[in-house]
Every structure is written in C-alpha cells, then in structure tokens.
Amino acid sequence: MVLAIVFGGGGARGAFQAGVWSALAPLIQPQFVIGSSIGAVNAWATTRLAPSALCQWWLTAAPNRLLPYAKGTFAPVLARLAQLPRRANWPALAVCTPLGRPGSHVVTLSAAHAANWLAASCALPGWFAPVKVAGHWYIDGGVRNDLPVTIAQALGATAIIAIGAGGLGPTPQAETVPNILPPAGLGKMFDWSKKARQKALMAGRQAGAEWIASTEFRRLVEISSKRVQNGK
C-alpha cells in the first residue's frame, strides 16, 4: 500500500489541517504528502515540524493578517519554514498552476527551492502576484486542482487521506477517497486572526479524532498492518 496524505487549499483554514494531522500522525506514516496552496505549506511542514510543533506554528508563526499584494508578510514566513531542518523522510510535493500552459505542475520540494515553490503554490490571483520559478510563471495550485487527489493517484498512491480546507478551486474526484473537511461556518479563508486560527485548529483536532474512531480508518490500518507483515 502506498499511502499519500493530500492537503487542499483554503487560506487561514489551513490551521484545520494542522489539527487533523496532529491527531492522525501518531498512527500513520505516509509514503508521500502533497498539497495545493496552503496545503503545500502544510505538506512541507510535516517533514520539518512535529505535529504539535506544526499546531504551534499555526498559532504563533503564521501571519495575523494578510492583505492583497501586501509585501513583507507571507514570503518571509515561508522562507523561515523552508529553512528548517528535515525531521521526516517522506517526500513533500507542491502543486502549482503554470501560466500559459495546460494542466498542473507538480514539484518535489527541496530545502534549496521550497520557499519559491511554496510561494508559487499560494499565489492566489487577486491576492498575490504570479511567482517566477526556473524561468516560468506560476499561480496558486488550487486554480486547477484544489485538493489534488487525482494527482496523488497518478503518482502511485493506492490509499489516500484527503484533508481539505474549503478552498475555492475544483476538486476532481476528491469524493472518491476519505475526505476530512472543515465544518460549515468554521470561518473565512482570509480571516487570519489568531482567534480564527485557534478555532480552526481545535476543529481539526476534533475531526481527526472522530475519523480515527471510524470504520474507514480501522480498515486502512488493518490493510497497512497486513502489508507490513507480508513484507509488501
């Protein structure tokens, strides 16, 4: 079984994903993680921060306010996150939308280039300018695939846990896999206030705990255990 964790876009509601991950992480180990927009940031962060530290990052290091095209807010935050030493060995992938070219662009993040690719994956039109990386221009990965389940499947994932954040883009076939979504009325995706982030984080922890208690999760763990025992 090749398990992938898929993180979707959704701005400040990415704190919800951190809460879900803090509940799931002690019980699972993915072969890779992938995300669009703020989901790419969380995907990268799972390789750099312990689950509890990621929750703390959302409370203390994430910006308290983001304004359209404001400079000196999000980019430095991403740069500092990109520089953290590796903690987990699974690959982290980011989804971006290339300008003037079809489809999505998927990149395996490395310490040397993570900050630029994360900024590109989060470059939501109307809020951030396109980002140029390696000679090409990119915008938010969620413009074409907000919850990149189909991309994870194309990359070989045979089991997927999708953790959404209520982004605005299309989610091709996301309903075909376990999909943990923020509850209705959780908060606006552009509300970066600490109070909103705390609320989203707590909701994520609750949603993660509920999913761990589900039959679906137990079945996933059983399949994974059998594969390990059989050496597969």
UniProtKB/TrEMBL annotation:
Transmembrane segments: none annotated. Pfam families: Patatin. PROSITE patterns: PNPLA. The keyword Nuclease does not apply. A motif (GXGXXG) lies at residues 9-14. The keyword Phosphoprotein does not apply. It comes from the Bacteria. The active site is at residues 37, 140. InterPro entries: Acyl_Trfase/lysoPLipase, NTE, PNPLA_dom. Keywords: Hydrolase, Lipid degradation, Lipid metabolism. A motif (DGA/G) lies at residues 140-142. A motif (GXSXG) lies at residues 35-39. Gene3D superfamilies: Cytosolic phospholipase A2 catalytic domain (3.40.1090.10). Residues 5-153 form the PNPLA domain. This is Patatin-like phospholipase family protein. It comes from Lacticaseibacillus baoqingensis.
